[in-house]
Design a protein that fits this description.
Blueprint lengths: L13 H25 L6 H25 L7 H30 L1
């Protein structure tokens, strides 16, 4: 018997994957914007910290809006956790890919 949350082609927990993907893309776009703004690939811890704060505020805000204003939607810690995992993946990608790209361009 299928799970009651399972609908169509989607599987249980598909929304968590979507949260992770959206916040990964959001983080990459924020980092890309910062790179274009400062015209360098330099690594700054303050930038990473600001992006974590911004995305945590957005993710938490979305969950609070769902909890307060939409009775047919639910706010879940797992959604927020997947948001932050997506952010961590985006930051890791930045550090891994752009840091090595910066060293190659410098040489």
């Amino acid at each position: 018997m299928p799970d009651s949350k399972e609908t169509g082609i989607f599987f249980t927990g598909f929304d968590k994957l979507v949260h992770l993907g959206f916040f990964y893309v959001l983080t990459v776009l924020l980092l890309y914007g910062k790179i274009n703004h400062q015209h360098s690939y330099s690594f700054r811890s303050l930038t990473i910290f600001k992006i974590i704060l911004i995305t945590a505020f957005v993710g938490g805000g979305i969950e609070m809006i769902q909890y307060e204003f939409f009775p047919y939607r639910s706010a879940e810690w797992w959604d927020f956790g997947c948001d932050m995992i997506g952010v961590a993946m985006g930051i890791f990608s930045y550090i891994l890919l752009h840091k090595s790209d910066y060293h190659e361009k410098k040489a």
